[in-house]
Amino acid sequence: MPRLPVLLCTIALLVPSAGCSEPPQKEIDRAQQAIDAARAAGAEQYAPETYNAATAALKQSHEAVDQRDYRLALSRAVDAGDRAQEATKEATDNKAKARRDAESAINAANAALMQLEARIKTAEAARVPAREIAPARGTVQDATGTLQKARAALSAGDLPAARSTVEGLESQIRSEIRVVEAATTLRTVRRPVRKK
Question: What's the pLDDT at 12?
Fold first, then answer.
């Protein structure tokens, strides 16, 4: 009779380990699906740290299976799935922010370009010599092409390219606006006052 409690305790200890007597294939498959979904959401680019942690955990799960440590394999597979889901959310959020940033930069550069075009017309009306506003006209032409490229990249979903294409463009245009305004002011001040 005294051996019965010992036998029951031994059985109780063996039962939990029986649940991990084979590879956790369902969990590994779920983790792989979650990683695939994260990749499709752009996690490699927009949430690289979390995505890499997910793929590393899945790799560790496979290694644990090879070593027949199914408990560790299960733990790593679950961790991989959780991290992959987190990477998907991060990627979605970061991608939306990147789109907003790119659109904002393009819109700001476009607004500055419209101001420059208006200042050029004002300068022409004030009879500023063409050679003085030629650089501004060149900036308008270059900026128009650059904005077209940025918008094409934005439409194609290449948000980093869209943002980098217009990097510094607004400040370049605003610098040219100041030059044209100065030339216009100088021309207006120099113009002799006609006597009636």
Answer: 42
d(CA 120, CA 116): 6
Query: What residues contact residue 132 under an 8 Å CB cut-off, 6+ apart?
Result: 123, 183
Q: Which two tokens stand for residue 131?
A: 């050679």
* CATH (domain of 121): 1.20.140
Residues 180, 185, 191, 196: what is their CA dihedral angle, to the nearest 10 degrees?
Answer: 130
Fill in the amino acid letter for 113.
L
Rounded to two decimals, the pTM is: 0.72
Q: What 3-state DSSP class applies to 2?
A: coil
Structural domain for 118, as ranges: 96-189
Separation between Cα atoms, residue 101 and residue 28, nearest integer Å: 37
Residue finishing a domain among 47, 77, 93: 93
Evaluate if residue 114 carries a pLDDT over 80. yes
How does pLDDT run across 2-49, given as a tens digit for each residue? 444 444 444 444 444 444 589 999 999 999 999 999 999 999 999 999
Where b means 16+ CB within 10 Å and e means fewer, 31-65 reads bbebbeebbebbbeebbeebbebbbebbebbbebb
Dist. CA 77–CA 55, nearest whole Å: 10
